[in-house]
Write a structure and sequence with these properties.
This protein has helices spanning 2-34, 42-48, 51-87, 93-146, 177-183; strands at 37-40, 151-154, 156-158, 165-167, 174-175. By secondary structure, the protein is mainly alpha-helical.
Length: 189
C-alpha cells in the first residue's frame, strides 16, 4: 500500500512539474516579444544641453572665489612666517610660541577651507545640475511612452568616488540618444 502511494505521488509530481515547466517556458516567450529596450548615455546628453554652459560658468565662479580666498590666506601665512624668521631672535619664548600658533591656526584654517570648498562645490553643482537631469528624465519618460519602451537604461554611470565615467557594455536594444537630442532641440553634427 505504501509503495502504491509513493508511486502515485511520484507520477503526480512528475506530471505537475512538467506542466509548470511548460507554463514557465511559455511566459517568457510571450513577454519577451513585448519587451522593448532602449539605452542612452544620459550624462553625455546632460552635458550637451545649452544650460550646461551656464552651470559650468557658475561653478568656475565658485571655484575662483574659493581659490582667491585660499590665496589670501596663503599670502597671510607666508607673511607671518617671514616675519617670524626676521624677528625670532628678538622674541621671548612665549611670544615665539604665540606666533607659531598663529601660523598653525592659519594652516588649519586653510585645510578647513579646502574641505568646505569641495563640499560647497559639490552641493552647488548638484543643485545647478538637478533641473537639467529632471529635464532629461522627463524627455526619456516621454520617449519611453511614445515609442513604447519597456526599459531605457543608461550605458554609463559616474563613479561617485572618482567622479569619472564608468563605461559598461552596450545592452541589446535601441539607442535613444538621437530621439532624445531631437526632442531637446539639440543640433548634433
Amino acid at each position: 500500500m505504501k509503495l502504491k502511494t509513493i508511486i502515485f505521488t511520484a507520477i503526480g509530481l512528475c506530471s505537475f512539474s512538467t506542466l509548470s515547466v511548460n507554463a514557465q517556458s511559455a511566459k517568457p516567450k510571450e513577454s519577451t516579444d513585448s519587451i522593448k529596450i532602449g539605452y542612452i548615455d544620459k550624462e553625455l546628453l546632460v552635458m550637451q544641453l545649452p544650460d550646461m554652459l551656464w552651470v559650468q560658468d557658475s561653478l568656475i565662479k565658485v571655484e575662483n572665489s574659493y581659490a582667491s580666498l585660499y590665496q589670501q590666506m596663503e599670502a597671510e601665512r607666508s607673511r607671518k612666517i617671514e616675519e617670524l624668521i626676521k624677528t625670532k631672535d628678538n622674541l621671548t619664548e612665549n611670544m615665539l610660541m604665540l606666533k607659531q600658533k598663529e601660523i598653525n591656526d592659519l594652516s588649519q584654517n586653510m585645510q578647513f577651507l579646502e574641505k568646505i570648498a569641495m563640499q560647497d562645490y559639490q552641493t552647488i553643482r548638484q543643485n545647478l545640475e538637478a533641473p537639467l537631469h529632471q529635464k532629461v528624465d522627463s524627455v526619456l519618460e516621454l520617449i519611453g511612452k511614445e515609442y513604447k519602451f519597456t526599459y531605457i537604461t543608461k550605458v554609463r554611470w559616474i563613479d561617485p568616488m572618482t567622479n569619472k565615467p564608468i563605461e559598461i557594455m552596450v545592452p541589446a536594444g535601441e539607442n535613444v540618444m538621437p530621439i532624445a537630442q531631437k526632442k531637446l532641440g539639440l543640433i548634433i553634427r
